[in-house]
Structures are given as structure tokens and as C-alpha cells.
Amino acid sequence: MSKTIKIIKWSAITILTLLLSLVAFGYWFMGLIAADQPINADVTQTIPSNLPYLNKDSVEYRGKILAIVTSTAEMGTSGKSTGYELTELSRAYYVFMANGFEVDIASPIGGQPPVVIDDDDVAEYDYAFMNDLDAQHKVKHTLALADINPSDYEGIYFVGGKGAMYDFPNNTSIQKLVRELYESDKVVGAVCHGPAALVNVTLSDGRALLTEKTVSSFTNKEELFLIPDAPEIFPFLLQDKLIESGATFKEGAMYLENVVVDGRIVTGQNPWSTWALAESMIEVMGYKPKQRPITAEENAVAVLNAYSRSGYDQAKQLLGQKLNEKTPIHRELLAVHSIISTMQWELGTTVDILRLLAYAKSME
Fold first, then answer.
1. 143 to each of 105, 107, 111, 113, 319, how far by Cα in Å?
2. Residue 55 has what pLDDT?
3. With a cut of 70, which residues of the chain have pLDDT below it?
4. Residue ranges of domains in the chain
């Protein structure tokens, strides 16, 4: 057998072995999440009356909160579509409603704004929002910002979505609303790209709103991981702009919950921060948030945050505690983070998250 044929033979064997190993790993990997939370075939039909959180232990009326979404449908001239993030509106909307607040929805130009719906992230509260006739009327007929009377509201909440990078920062109606509400001791909240609304707000005494304030938002690292050419597409990177506007930026782990409260300004890093941000706004208003069932996604995020802050042993301990309490865990989200860490060549983290997945599987 010639040397060339031997090389070809062993190369073929090596490639075949690698392929078989990858297939075997794939089956094993999918097996770790195959028995994730049972699929409810009717979840897409969820309506608000199906959610005990919204209907049990009703709270007295406490006033109104204004939620603001973007009117921008395209990322600059990139041809990439955008809008407001459904989950960042729907989940906060129901937290506010459950805690006694009526919610109005506005946008820079009014009318029906563009929306981003990620099917992988949509869950029962989001479907309830999409099936909620009152909420859908509000979101399809948003109030124009120029027509808003700030004295009508106890707080303001800026919903994220990449479109906010374009029509929030220089909107004079937004600047006026934020200034008047903040100076009236009201609460200002914003999540993900929503804090873009705050970068150019000046108070009546001439100081920038964000001077010496600690905030968070979608980070440079998160932005560039998803959109490497973000500096060319967006007018600025939000983390940089917030710092430039006088703020101290508090960065959490990638794609995990991180909420920052500084006085009456409440900001959240990303979509996974929405629940906690809305409840933090309720607390800043002086109320104890109504008890809410923690979602499987939030439990997975808590485990991942424990790992990020304290390492594998603490994450495993928390995971075991939740599993022993029969608390739902979104194992697919753990799997996604193992893939993210692999893409960043953080292979030790990949191995640890796979170990956590295997541990969860063993506890079934």
C-alpha cells in the first residue's frame, strides 16, 4: 500500500471517528434538555384570566405608569428590521397591572409601532399579552409622546428594542417627560436599549440627569457578540454613551439578569432583567411587589448568575435546592449559555454548564 493511500485511509478513519463522536455528543447533549419543562400545547391560547398572578389578591388602584416603545422599524440604513421587544413590554405591563397600576403605552410618533417577537423566548405571559384585547388595542394605537401630560403618571418605563437607539436619544418630548417626572419625585425605569432615552436628558438646573448616577443597559460585549458591525450600524454603543453622559456603568454577566437602582432611576441590562426591573420600580414607588410565581427561565438565570459570581459549587447547590423543591428550570437556557461560552472559547465554563445540565438530568 502506497504512502499516499495510507494517509488517505487514516485521514478518512480520523474524519469518520470525529463525525461519529460529534453525532454521539449531539445525541447526549439533546438528551440533557429533552425532558425540559413539559410543553403545554395550549400555551399560545393563554389569556390574562388564566394567570393566577393577575387575578388573585387584587391590589387597590395606585395610579398610572407610562410605557414607551420605539417607532423605528429599521436599524439605520442597514436594511435590518427592528422594533420594540415584545417580552420587555408584556412582562413589565403585567407586573405593573398586578400591582395596582394602569398602563398607558406611547411611542414617539404614536399609532402602531414595529415589534420584535422571538419565538424562542415567548412564554405564557407574552401569549397572554398577545391575546389580551385591551393590551392589543393600546399597543396598536399608541399615544404620541407630544400629547402626553406627565402629571398623569407615577412613573415612566422605556421598553428596549434596538430601534430605541435611533428615536429615543434626541427626542425632545422624551427629554421633557423624563425631566418633569424625575423632578416631581416620580420613578424612571428603562431596560436593555431603553436607557438610550436617558443619555441627553438635562435637568432644570442644567445638570445632566445621569451625572454621578449608576446605571446599566445592554452592554458593548452583548451588542458586539450579536452584531460585530454594531459601531457602524448604530449611532453609538449604548454602554459608551451612558458613560459619556456622566454615568457609572455597572456591567453584569452576558445575557443574565442585572438591575441597578440609583434613587429613582431603575435600569436593567437586557431582556432577562425585565421582571426584576419592573418589581424594583414598584419597590422604589414605596410598595411591596405582589408575590409572583418565578418562571423556569428566571430560575435558570439565577443558577447561571450564581455560577458567574461564585463558581460551580454554588451554582450546583442552588440548582439542587430548586430541583428538590420541584421548581421549574429552563434547561434549554442553560444549554444556550454553554454554546455561548464555547463560541467565546471559554471551554472551562462550557464544561461546567454541561455538568450542571447533567446534574439536572440526573435529578429527574
1. 6, 6, 7, 10, 44
2. 87
3. 1-41
4. 59-284, 294-364
